[in-house]
Amino acid sequence: MATIKRFEEIEAWINARKLTNMVYDFTNESLFSKDFGLKDQIRRSAVSVMSNIAEGFESHTQALFADFLGRAKGSVGELRSQLYISLDCGYITEDEFNQAISLAEHTSKQLYRLIAYLKTQPNIRRIREGIIEYNIQS
């Protein structure tokens, strides 16, 4: 059983960070970079995944953490949909799409499992400063 003390240790956050970097790399390419609407939206959805995990971890209750994880999971779904648009428009290759969609699906599953875990734990109020710990079964 692992103990998480910082949001940077959450595997879903680590993968969301990788996914965000992939999206920024894609959207810096010439064709994609000129589609300002899609470029902005896909970047926002990628950043939202990371941000919601971090914000939820730093929140006051496990219930609020689970809620933010649900928002992060929703943003992963939005990102996956935008990856299809990017592929269909020819902005990313089939290989880039497959890598990103695979990581997005894996991250979504990780979020689902973390939400499910939190729902099995007592809803302890965490209104204090200092280290916040969650014991996660590997």
Q: What are the low-pLDDT stretches, counting only 5+ consecutive residues below 50?
A: none
Number of continuous helical runs: 5
> What is the residue-mean pLDDT, rounded to a whole number?
90
Morphology call = elongated
Work out the radius of gyration.
Answer: 16 Å
Q: How much β-strand is present in the residues?
A: under 5%
Strand arrangement, major sheet: 1-2
Quaternary structure annotation: single chain
CATH fold topology: de novo design (two linked rop proteins)
SSE topology:
Blueprint: E1 2-4, H1 11-27, H2 30-34, H3 36-57, H4 62-88, H5 94-120, E2 134-136
Antiparallel strand pairs: 1-2
Could you explain how this protein is built, in words?
This protein is elongated. It has 5 helices and 2 strands, in the order E-H-H-H-H-H-E. The chain has a two-stranded antiparallel ribbon with strand order 1-2. It is mainly alpha-helical and 138 residues long.
Entry keywords:
single chain; 138 residues; mainly alpha; de novo design (two linked rop proteins); 5 helices; 4% strand
Question: Quick summary of this structure?
Answer:
The chain has helices at 11-27, 30-34, 36-57, 62-88, 94-120, and strands at residues 2-4, 134-136. The chain is mainly alpha-helical and 138 residues long.
